[in-house]
Amino acid sequence: MVRLRIVLLAVTLGAMVALAQETYNIRLAPVAADIAMRENIAGSGMVKVTLVGTELTLNGTFEGLKGNATVAHIHQGTATGVRGPELLALTVTKSMSGNVSGSFNLTPEQLAALKKGRWYVQIHSEKAPEGNLWGWLLK
Q1: The CATH fold of domain 20-136
Q2: What contacts 137, CB < 8 A, 6 or more positions away?
């Protein structure tokens, strides 16, 4: 009986550790741009990202764009601060202010890249199709 309780306790503790919640609070700021693009890039935002096990949930807001948002993605860079290709599509309000959201079940490779600081959120707009706002998923 004691042995069974120890096993159950170990299983319960293991499950609790596996489902530990991690939270990332991201500040969205204008994408680095050359002088010609500065007149088209503006705005700010905040995004809260929650990771429970392999389930990633993202919810945030943005405002102050100079053109309507068109798309938003999670991108993966080769290193923190280095831009990279889009990885996961997000839902975004097609306006100069609004919401951005998404929910994903991550693969082990995606989870490793996230934990290494290689992911960022990027919102594109009509006036800045290469990217308007971005923010890195860092602890």
Answers
A1: Immunoglobulin-like (2.60.40)
A2: 24, 26, 49, 74, 114, 117, 119, 120, 121
